[in-house]
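can u do me a favor
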């Protein structure tokens, strides 16, 4: 049932091959009625959970890319041009490339403010808004933290909006999307309960994170964020800052150092060696690890990796 059909593309054109394979298979499957362009893989996975074969989802980024910084390539513009629906995390996460894509694609159906555009983070309670307008001053999240997908309750909130939007854009499939949404939410609610039970030992654990990628997860599971490897969010960790963290944590005070697959390992490995705290990789989205193949296995993997690190201490 979970044929996740996410089309990716990277700089080497590898995904082009994937795209061809899927197109070649398309006549065998039900025709895709709704073309969904997403900025981050979690929203492609969600669209597919709800819409199954009625949607084809194309993700601008993979889990191995930093969604703050990609190029507005011509192939992405072409995808936006043919999209019926665009869904992105928003809160300025994609401010470096999405406005250019939307402008060049010139597809009025998916412009901000139209019914074919969803800014996912508008539908959850955003954490950490500073109102700081100068990104160079040390905050690339002045409108609140955009990494909302690390709390599965946020994914449920976005699912409701997405399901209803799909139903309104493709009225022939409305009943299908609503049934898909109900089915997903039922399974998702059960999964959240079981994750919360399983993650109970993580309550009160202390995390150093590379970037402010995990604030929603931390709030959800009661994990305390004690420091970041980036002195200035969005800029690479500096030697001075890592030196300070070494003094601060050499006697302990944290349970793990967390980074995402696309983040340079050197800073967390360097600190880990000096302070004796485990450095771990957590998938920030679907595709971030081999196990995180869909939204459910994404959270299975995140929680198991955290528990494993806690047990290994
Ligand atoms: Zn960020």
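np, heres the sequence
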């Amino acid at each position: 049932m979970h044929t996740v059909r996410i089309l990716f593309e990277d700089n080497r054109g590898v995904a082009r091959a994937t795209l061809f394979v899927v197109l070649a298979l398309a006549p065998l499957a039900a025709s895709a009625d709704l073309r969904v362009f997403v900025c981050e893989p979690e929203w492609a996975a969600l669209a597919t959970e709800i819409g199954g074969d009625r949607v084809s989802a194309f993700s601008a980024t993979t889990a191995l890319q930093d969604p703050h910084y990609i190029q507005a390539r011509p192939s992405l513009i072409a995808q936006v041009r043919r999209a019926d629906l665009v869904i992105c995390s928003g809160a300025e996460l994609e401010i470096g490339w999405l406005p250019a894509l939307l402008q060049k694609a010139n597809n009025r159906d998916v412009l901000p403010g139209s019914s074919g555009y969803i800014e996912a983070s508008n539908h959850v309670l955003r954490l950490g808004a500073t109102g700081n307008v100068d990104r160079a001053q040390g905050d690339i999240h002045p409108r609140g933290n955009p990494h909302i997908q690390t709390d599965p309750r946020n994914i449920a909130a976005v699912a409701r909006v997405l399901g209803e939007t799909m139903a309104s854009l493709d009225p022939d499939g409305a009943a299908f999307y609503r049934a898909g949404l109900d089915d997903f939410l039922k399974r998702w609610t059960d999964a959240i309960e079981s994750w919360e039970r399983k993650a109970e030992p993580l309550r009160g654990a202390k995390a150093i994170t590379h970037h402010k990628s995990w604030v929603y997860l931390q709030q959800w599971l009661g994990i305390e964020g004690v420091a970041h490897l980036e002195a200035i969010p969005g800029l690479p960790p500096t030697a001075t800052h890592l030196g300070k963290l070494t003094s601060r944590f050499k006697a302990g005070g944290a349970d793990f150092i967390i980074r995402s697959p696309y983040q340079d390992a050197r800073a967390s490995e360097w600190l880990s060696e000096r302070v004796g705290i485990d450095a771990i990789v957590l998938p920030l989205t679907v595709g971030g690890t081999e196990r995180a193949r869909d939204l459910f296995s994404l959270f299975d993997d995140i929680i198991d990796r955290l528990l494993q690190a806690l047990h290994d201490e």
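The beta strands are 6-7, 34-38, 55-59, 85-88, 117-119, 206-209, 224-228, 256-259, 278-281. hope that helps!!
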